[in-house]
Every structure is written in C-alpha cells, then in structure tokens.
Amino acid sequence: MSTAYLDNNATTKVDPQVVEAMLPFFTEQFGNASSIHEFGAQVTGALRKARKQVQTLLGAEFDHEIVFTSGGTESDSTAILSAMECLPDRDEIVTSKVEHPAILSVCQHLEKIGRAKVHYIGVDSFGRLDLEAFRAALSPRVALVTLMWANNETGTIFPIEGLADLAKEVGALFHTDAVQAVGKVPISLKDSSIDMLSLSGHKLHGPKGVGALYVKRGSRFKPLLRGGHQERGRRAGTENAPGIVALGLACELAGQHMAEENTRVKALRDKLEKGVLAAVPNCFANGDPHDRLPNTANIAFEYVEGEAILLHLNRAGIAASSGSACTSGSLEPSHVLRAMNIPFTAAHGSIRFSLSRDTVEEEVERVIQVLPGIIEKLRALSPFWAGAQKEARDFKPVYA
Ligand SMILES: Cc1ncc(COP(=O)(O)O)c(C=O)c1O
C-alpha cells in the first residue's frame, strides 16, 4: 500500500513530463544564456518559451512582465523591499494577519528597523478579510498593500482584484502572494490593478527552488539582487535554466488541468470533508465554505492534539499536515487559526488535507475509513475531552 499523499499545499510531486523537459538542460544544453555562441542561444530560446508559458497562465499582457526567481520567498521579499525603495516618502504597509511567514517576517523586520508602520488586517472566523478595517487603513501614507490570493492553511480566497482597485485609489503599489492560487484558480492580470504577483514552481508540480515575480509594465520596481544584467536587470544571477524550463512547462500543464482541479479534485475534497464531518463527532471545517481553493480541506477536531493525529495518520499510510509545513513541530497553534479566533481546543487539533491532480479516490476513502477510529482513540486518552463541558462540545461556527 503506497502512502496517500494529501499534503500538496506543502509541496507537489514534479510532473514526469516536467522532469523530462528539464533534463537536457543539465546535459547537452548546459550553456549560459548570456553567452553569444550556440550553447547560449539554445538556453535563451528555452527561457523565452518558459516566460511565455508563465505569461499565458497568469493572463499577463507582456512576457517581459515575468521575472524568474528562486521561488515564492524570494519573490515576496523582492516585492516588499522594492516597493519601500520606490516610494521613499511613504512609510506604511497594509497586509493581513494570515499571510505566510515569507510576507510577515519581512514586514516585521521593516517595523523593527523603523522603516515602516505595518497594518495587519484581521479576518473573521471563516478567514475572510475585515474589509472595513482594510478600507480604514488605506491612506496616502501607504507604500504597499500585500495580500495573499489564497491561504495556504485554509484555502480561503481573498477578493484580490477588488482589493487591488482600492489600493490604487490611494496610490499604493499592490502585491499579491499567489503561491497557492496559481494553477488552481483562473487569473487574468492584464486588466487588473495588481502591480506584482508571486508564484512558486513546487506548488504546481514543478521543482523546488524556482518561481517568478510578475511585475506589471510601468509599475515602479527596484531589484533585490544586483549584479549581472539577467532578467533585464531586475534579478541578477545566471539563470536556473533547468528550473525555469520546468516552471514554464509546469505552468502550461497547470493551465490544462485547471478544469480538473475544479471538478474532479474538488469533488474528492468535498467527499473527504463531508465523509469525515459525518463520521466524527465534534469536528468542523475551517475556512470559507464558498470562496476556497478546490483542493483544500482544513478540519478542526476538538480536544485532540494535531501532532498526535498526524502520527497516527502517518502510521495508517496517510500524509497530511497540521498547518503550514514551517510551523509543524511547534506546539503553538497556527497564527492563521488564531487570527480566525478558532477556540484553542479546536485550533490545536486542526488538520489540513490538500489534494492535487495526482490524488485518487482510494486515498480519500482511506481517510474516511481510518480517521474516526484515530480520533476516538485519542479522545479516550484526552483529559480535555473527558472534562469538556457539553456546551463547549456543541460549539459550531456560524456563516453569516
Ligand atoms: C502562501 C505561500 N507563500 C510563500 C511560500 C514560500 O514559497 P517557496 O517555498 O517557493 O519559497 C509558500 C510555501 O509554503 C506559501 O504557501
């Protein structure tokens, strides 16, 4: 029995076609794109094709709006630091409490060195952005608004295009961390107010260590890495040709599979969620029931320890996650679930199941079959469960 891999928001398996496409760039086509000779020309052509493939998936107007990077983290850092350098007279940033650490830690650093005041906008118990607080934070002092397109833990989708329009009204630059959204939801940047967008190869069946930052033509921009003239001077360093070729094809394939993501994968996710909610008492789904990534289910099991659930699932041949991969191993409940005000007793026992086009029905059925027994066993050992008041056990969030 192979392990059911249900942790695709942490990383995805590289598509075999993608592996095949990148291999020649380690062997025969090993050239440096900056070289004048034939070896360089081969790579230059391949990079051009990859840039077009990424442009197409994002619905961007020009291929040169795509800047290749080493992944989501570099794209996020570049976007934030660029905005602060481009708008030196502005000293505020607007972001949310539920962003990935790749955004939050850069914002916290800018606060610490006194460069920016940061507004961390809250969310409701479904992870939806507090629009009133967002509007109130916008002013001509804001250099950058940076908000994620879709949340990596709950899958909740923010109404990004509308939020970007509001940011434009005060002359702020707008960046979105779309690492979890690209390839799962349709994106069309051409007519949007979005200045910058981050994406990462390994979340869409491409390799790790490669990604891109979209920078709208005409938007102000300063590079993070300086050196050679690669990427039109916007990101120095010899291009990661195998990775970029792989990212290009991964984006093309993601475009082809998008419909499947929203039908077959979504149906499997719904089956998993409904099956578990029906079979296990005192559990509920985290995240927006409507505006949510089609592959993500985050389920809170009250009065049980998430890490213990994961260990038992692992033994039963199921790989899942108790939040973002970066925080697993820590006993602190996730900052995303805390921002959503999920009761401590439920946030601690929240498990994320994230599917992909590789997921098959048998894997979902295995979860539905083994999870009720695991939870029952763990609750029998839990002093919290034994001592829980009936009203607390009956807690259910209300969707307004
Ligand atoms: C929302 C989000 N942003 C950024 C990142 C970081 O991307 P990378 O691993 O490519 O640096 C991740 C990865 O987990 C993510 O989920």
Report on the architecture of this protein.
With 400 residues, the chain is of the alpha/beta class. It has two domains: 4-9 and 258-393, Aspartate Aminotransferase, domain 1 (Alpha-Beta Complex); 16-254, Aspartate Aminotransferase, domain 2 (3-Layer(aba) Sandwich). 40% of the residues lie in helices and 14% in strands. The chain contains 13 helices and twelve strands. The chain has helices spanning 16-22, 38-58, 72-86, 101-112, 131-137, 160-169, 241-279, 306-315, 335-339, 344-347, 361-381, 383-387, 390-393, and strands spanning 4-5, 66-69, 92-96, 117-121, 142-148, 173-177, 196-200, 211-215, 283-286, 296-301, 318-319, 350-354. The strands form three sheets. A seven-stranded mixed β-sheet has the order 2-8-7-6-5-3-4, with helices on both faces. It has a three-stranded antiparallel β-sheet with strand order 9-10-12. Strand 3, helix 4 (101-112) and strand 4 form a beta-alpha-beta unit. Helix 2 (38-58) runs parallel beside helix 7. Residues 324-328 have low confidence and may be disordered. Bound molecules: pyridoxal-5'-phosphate. Pyridoxal-5'-phosphate binds at residues 71-73, 76, 100, 102, 148, 152, 177, 179-180, 200, 211.
